[in-house]
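Work Package 3 (structural annotation) set out to generate three-dimensional models for the target panel prioritized at the project kickoff. During this period the team completed the workflow that converts sequence records into discrete structure tokens, so that structures can be stored uniformly alongside our sequence database. As a representative example, we reproduce one entry of 150 residues exactly as it appears in the project archive.
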Amino acid sequence: MTDIDGIDGRILRALARDGRISNQALAEEIGLSPSACLRRVAALERDGVITGYRAVFDPARMGRGFVVLVGVGLSEHSKAAQEAFERAISRAPEVRECHNITGVIEYMLRVECADLPSYKAFHTDVLGALPQVKEITSFVVMGSPKDERA
């Protein structure tokens, strides 16, 4: 486990806000020399604290503005059932996130579609067609006042 000191914490917060910030601008913001800043960022990457950089897309501008959080309960509590479900879900482009969770259901999905009819098709033709699926509970996202996913 890597020790994150105050400077590393400030670097991580700055990169979370803007992963494309230049090393020069990051160093100025943090109060380090560019070479010291670059060494710290490289160490955070090498230690696996920073696992990658990515672009964040606006689902609505991509025609996927209908967002649904979907709870999925499986009919069988076995490793084989979970693996089969995860394989099927990995092939579904509508599923942007899949989390194996604890509680009364096994999975929570973040699904992005164009609209209600396209979600209904996904619900029926993809989730409803999987033999492992016993229960589906849909929560339509009406707004996201806080979303820090990068």
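The chain has five helices and four strands.
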